[in-house]
Design goal:
There is one protein chain. By secondary structure, this protein is mainly α. Helices cover about 50% and strands about 5% of the residues. It has a single domain, classed as Hypothetical protein af1432, CATH 1.10.3210. The strands form 2 sheets. The chain has a two-stranded antiparallel sheet with strand order 1-2. α4 crosses α5. The two termini are about 20 Å apart. The relative contact order is 0.15.
Length: about 240
């Protein structure tokens, strides 16, 4: 690419699909952190390695979903900006390590961190990655999906750093956070039922099935500006992100 993302300014450039399905540069109205900046922020906020690995897998899953939508180009689906989706996916658990220590709401705390950093659009994604506030079957039926919905769904398909089904992920969440509380169990099940509805609509606009997401992610690498390799996502350890 001839231009790279600019962060920290009122106007930046992010990637978006053109009408032929290719990922091109388009003008954005507010700053979005580049992938390398997201990795730096993970380090700054002390993200544990297991949470970092989870976030990287969620980002790969989100990118695979976007690629499927771009390649399909059917039914007039509106594809959200990839730069926004990837940054939101990488930072969705930015406050998780902090909240493991303080018992705070990591989605709310993460939103606050993003606002402090000057990334309100990322903050909205982070705030709603656990539960969507704006759940619209009418909009989904028209093929319109926002960045936060891609991240929300991708997160629901990743247990630790492994792609799983929604049912497997729901069981995992209930076992880890249900605390033998039937009301809490009900809320988790209700949330995943909404996610299944989103999944149904989303995959009408993707050129592979829900069962094929794991295969797609295994061959997926995070978008790299100008074709350059990413920085090592695990500071102090060798190696790059693998395709």
């Amino acid at each position: 690419m001839s231009k790279t993302q600019r962060s920290g300014k009122k106007t930046i450039y992010g990637q978006a699909p053109d009408n032929k399905g290719a990922l091109n540069i388009s003008k954005m109205s507010e700053p979005i952190p580049a992938i390398a900046q997201c990795l730096v922020l993970m380090d700054r906020y002390g993200m544990l390695d297991n949470i970092r690995a989870h976030s990287l897998t969620v980002a790969r899953a989100a990118e695979a979903l976007l690629t499927g939508m771009v390649e399909t180009g059917i039914n007039g689906a509106k594809v959200p900006d990839p730069a926004l989706v990837l940054a939101g996916a990488l930072l969705h658990d930015i406050a998780k390590t902090i909240c493991l220590k303080t018992q705070c709401d990591h989605a709310r705390k993460g939103r606050d961190i993003c606002l402090e950093l000057g990334y309100p659009a990322i903050g909205e994604i982070v705030r709603e990655h656990v539960v969507l506030k704006d759940f619209s079957t009418d909009r989904y039926g028209r093929g319109i999906f926002f960045a936060k919905e891609i991240v929300y769904y991708a997160d629901k398909r990743v247990r630790h750093d492994t792609i799983v089904s929604l049912n497997e992920r729901m069981t995992d969440i209930i076992e880890r956070y249900g605390k033998n509380d039937q009301q809490r169990h009900h809320l988790i099940e209700e949330n995943f039922q909404r996610c299944r509805t989103l999944e149904h609509h989303l995959f009408l606009h993707i050129n592979f099935t829900t069962d094929e997401l794991e295969e797609k992610v295994s061959g997926q690498s995070l978008l790299r500006p100008e074709g350059k390799e990413l920085l090592n996502p695990f500071p102090g350890k060798s190696g790059h992100l693998q395709k």
